[in-house]
Amino acid sequence: MTTHDIYLLSPEISMAGLAILLILVDLVVSRKSILTIVAVLGLAVPLALSIVLWFDLTDQAATQMKADFGTEIVTFVVDKFSLFFKFLLVGATALVILASSEYVSKFKNFHGEFFALILFATSGMMLLASTVELITIYVSLELTALPIAALAAFMRDSRSSEAGLKFLILSAISSAVLLYGMVIIYGFTGTTVLADIATQLGGLLDGESAFGGNALLFGVILVIAGFGFKISSVPFQMWAPDVYEGSPTPVTAFLSVASKAAGFAVILRVFYIAFSAEILSVDWSAVFAVLAAVSMTFGNLVAIRQNNIKRMLGYSTIAHAGYLMVGLAAVASRTPDADAIIGPSGVLFYLSGYAITNLAAFSAVIAISNRINSDLIDSFAGMARRAPFLAGVLGFSMISLIGVPPTVGFMSKIYIFGAAVDTNLEWLAVTGMVNSVISAYYYLRVVKVMYLREPIDDAPVGSALPMKLAVMVTMAGTAFFGIYPTPLINLARSAVDVLVS
Amino acid sequence: MFSGWLTTIVFLPLAGAIIIALFVRGDKNVRWFAGIISLAELVLSIAVFAQYDLGAGADQFQLVDKIEDWIPVESFKVQYFLAIDGLSAPMVLLTGILGMVSVFASWSVKERLPEYFMWLLILQSAVMGVFTSMDFFLFFIFWELELIPMFFLISIWGSKPNREYSAMKFLIFTLLGSAFMLVGILVLFFSFDTFDMTLLPDAISRGGILLPASLVFTMIFIAFAVKLPIWPLHSWLPDAHTDAPTAASVMLAGVLLKMGAYGMLRISATMFPEVMAGIAWLLASVGVINILYGAAIVLRQTDLKRLIAFSSISHMGFVVLGLSAVVGVNGQVSTVGITGAALQMFTHGTITGLLFLLAGFIYERTHTRHIPHLGGLATRMPMLTGALVLAGLASLGLPSTSGFVSEIHVFLGVFPVWSWLTAVGAFGVVLTAGYILWMIQRAMFGPENQHLNNVSDATVMEMVPVAVMVAAIMVVGIYPAIIADVFTTGIQPIVDSLQIAVTANLQ
Lengths: 501, 507
What we know:
heterodimer, A: mainly alpha, two-stranded antiparallel ribbon, 20 helices, globular, B: mainly alpha
C-alpha cells in the first residue's frame, strides 16, 4: 500500500473517519444539533478530495488511476465514472443528514451513531463505485448492507425492527445468490478481475467450452438477481415496501437514493466491463428489458392502492428502478449505429435527477410527517394551507416523479426513453410512457389531498432551518435541471466514457 | 436570430404568474394585475399578428427567436426555437383574445384567487408556446406544461361533485395520448438527428426513418386525436367541460382543442403527407361521424354546458372533414378544404368561447345549468340574451358571421373529393340549427320563471369580454380575408408537399 493508493482511497477513508469522529463528538457534546453541523461540514472533506481527484484525472488526461495495494491485481480504480457517483453519494448523504436533523431528536440516544452508520454505509457505496474486482465488490456490498440493516431497525418499535430484520435476512440471501453467480463466473474464467473476465470470456464464447454459453448465462442471471435486490427490481423487490414503511423516514430516503445509485454503479461496471462481449450483452440487455417492463408496471400498479406515503414511495421506487433499467437494456450493440454511451449515460442522468427529486419529496415528507406524526396520505389534507412552501415542494417533486415539464424528472425520463428508441427498443419506451401515465394517478393523489381537501386542523406546520435548506436545494435543483439539463447530461456522458472505451 | 417578440408573448403570462405568487397581495390587486397582464398579452398578440408579412413567401418563418445550443448534447440536440408562419399567426391572435377573455370572465371568482389567476396565466403561456414552437421537443414541453394548470383549474374551481373525477379523466386521457406522441418524436429524432420542425418534413420525405412512417404517424396522430377530440376518443371532453369553471371552459374549447387540430396540420399533414393522403377516407368518415354523433347527442342534453361541449365535438368534426381534402381530386390538391379546417379552428374558438362564457354568466346568476329550470330570461338579461342569440347564430353558420365562412370553405373544399360523405355531413348543419335554436328558445325565451325573478343582466366589466368576442366573430364574418389570407400562406406549403405525394401515388 503506497501513499498513492491512500491518496486514491482518500474520499472513502475520510468518510469513514468522519463517521468515527461523529461517535466521538457525540460522547462529549450535550447539544446534539452540533452533530448535524459537524456531519454536514465534515462531508466537505470527501467532496473536496473527490474534486481534487477529478481535476488530477483531467490534468493527466488519463481515464483511470489504479490502485493495487501491493497485490498482483488491480482492485480499485479512480475514474470519472466512480467520481460521478462519489459526488452524487456525498451530496445525497449531506441532504439526508440535513433532512434528518430534526427527526433524530425523536431518539433518546445514539444520535451520533445514527449519523455514523449513514456515513459508514456511504463509504461502502463509494467503494462500490470504484471497485473492479468481484471479491472487493462483495465486501463493499456487505459494508453498505450491514449499517443499513441497523439503521432500518433504529426506531426499535415493532415495525422498525421488522424492517431491519427483513432487510438483513433478504440482503443475506441476495448476497448468497450473488456469490454463487460470481463463483460460476470464476469457475469459467479463473479470475475475479472484471477486465480479465472480459478477455477470458472472449475466448470462451468463441470456442466450445464444456457447458457452452448457457451455464455462463446462468451465472450472469444469478449476478443480476443479486444486484436486483439492491436496486429493488421485480422480482427481488419484496423487501422494499415493508422496509421503506418501517424504517425511520430519513433512512428510507437514503435507501431509495444512495443505495439505488450504488447498486446501479456496480451493475454498470460489472456488465459493461466484464460482460461487454457483444454476443453476451444482447442477452443480458434482453433480461434487463423484461425486468424493466415488469418492474415499472408492477411498482406503478401496486402503488395506486397505497395509503401510507412512505409505502407509496416504496412502490414508486420499484417503478423507477424499472425506468432506470431501460438505460441498462439500451446497449449500443443492439443496433449498428446507435450512440455508444446513450444507455449508461441515461442511467447516470436519470439517477441524479431521481436523487434530487426524490430527496425533495422525502425532505418535505419528513418535515410534514414529523410535525403531524402520521405517514398516511390522508393526513396531509389541506397541507397547502398549513404549510404552503412544503406542500408546494412536495407537489412539484410529485410532478417531477411523473415526468411532466419543467422538471428534471421530465428531462431524464425523455433522455432514457430516447436511449431505448435509439437501440431499437421502441416497445420499451412505449411501455415506459404508458407507465408514466399510470403513475400520474397516484402521484397526483398526494397533490389532490394537499390542495383540495379541507385541513384536519388549522395549525400551521413549520420546519427547522436545516430542513428548509435541504428542501430549497433539492427544489432548486429539480427546477434548474428541468430547464437547463445540459451540465448534468454532459457530466454523465463524460463519466461513462470509461465504460465503453 | 432573436427578435424577442415571441419570447415575450410566451413568457409574459408566466412571469405575471410568478409575480402574483411572490409579490402581489390582496384579491383586488391580483385581479387587476392579471387583467393588465392579459390585456398586454392581447395587445402583443395583435401586434405579432399585424407584423406577419403576407408577402414574404409562402414558407417563411417569421419573428424567429432561436437559441441553437440550449441542450447541445450529441444525442439530445434541443434548440429553443420560436417562430410563426401563416398557420400559427392567427392561433397566436386567438390565444391572445381568449386569454384576455378568460381573465375578465373570472372577475367574480372569490375562492383562492391568487392561485387561480396564476394557473390561468401559466395555461396561457403554455398554449402560446405550443402555437409558436418550431422545435419538436420544445413543442412537446409546452404541450405537457398545459396539463397541470388545467388539472388544477378544473379540480379546485370546478363544479361539484364530479370535478376531481373530470380533472383526472382529462389528465389521464391527454397524458396517454402524448405518451405515444413522445415515442414518435424520439423515433423521428433518432432517425434524422434533429427536433427542428422546419427541417423534419424534408428529411422525412427523403426517407431513412427507423420505423415505418405510418406507425410513427399513428403514434403522433393519437395525441392530436385525443385532444381534438375525434370520436371515439372524446369521452373526456363532456366531463371536463361540464365541470370546469367558466374561464377554463373558454380556454379548453377555445384554444386547447385547437392544439389537436393545429398539430394535425403542423405535424401530421406537413411531415407525413403521403400517410395523411392515404387515410383521407378515414378522416372524412370520422369527421362525419363526429359531426352527426356530436349533434345527435346534443339534442338529448339538458345541461347548458354539456350541450355546448357536445356541440364542440360536432364542430370539431368539420375540422377533420376539412382535413380530409388532403387527398385532392383528380390528382389536384386545393387549399380550400384545408383552409376551411384552419378557419374552423379560429371561428370555433371565438364562437364556442363566447357560448361557454355566456353559459358561465347565466349559471352564476341562476345557479343552474339545467335548461328546463331556465326560461324567460330574455327580459331580465337582454344583453346576455342578445349575445347568446348572436353566438348561436354564428354557431349554426349564419352568413355574415364567422361560422359561415369556415363551414362554407370546408364544404366547398371537400365536396369535390368526398361528395357523398360531405352531403351526409352537411346534415349536421341542420341539426345544429335545430339544437341551437331550441336551446335558446328554452333557456332564454318562453314564460318567465318565478324563482328567477331577481337575476340581473351582465355588468359592464362582464360585457368587455363579450364585446371582444362578438367583434371577433363579426369581423371575420364580414371580412374573412383578414384571417383566411394568413392561413392560406401557411397552408400553401402543406398543399405543395401533399401535391407531390398525391402525384407520386398516381404514377
